[in-house]
Amino acid sequence: MREISIEKVTLNIGAGKDQAKLEKGMKLINSIAGRQPVKTFTRKRIQEWGLRPGLPIGCKLTLRKGKATELLKRLLESKDNTLQQSNFDDEGNISFGINEYIDVPGVKYDPEIGIMGFQVCITLERNGFRIKKRALKRHTIPKKHRIRRNESIDFMKSNFNLKLGE
Exposure string (b/e) for 77-103, b if CB count within 10 Å is 16 or more? Predict the structure, then answer.
């Protein structure tokens, strides 16, 4: 029950109001992962930024199981298998950004997209985490069963040869 596994890997690009950047982001995620991303929409009105509910402002793609680990190996390779301590949170999640998509192995420069970056979020879980999502008798994960920062760092070091930077 203590074994840690990858639940999902999420790729995210925030474009704001710029629809041209959003379309480029959709192409970029499709070229990296080989799947079509979904658009994300605003829920609140923020008048200073010119946002209203229902306006598309970004795109994301969630990968699970085998596809997620394959892509994660390539994404970590683009960061030289090095992440900072600050990329890990207290709940066992990992998040890092890639500044230029051409750093990812196997992805070539596309003049239509230009130079663009994206965000990568990794969610880790243990057996038994289903109790927080199920419909009947939903519960919280007990403290002793949650994934801590040092446990997620050890998991990444052992499975992906991760080095911790400064």
Answer: ebbeeebeeebbeeebbbbbebeebee
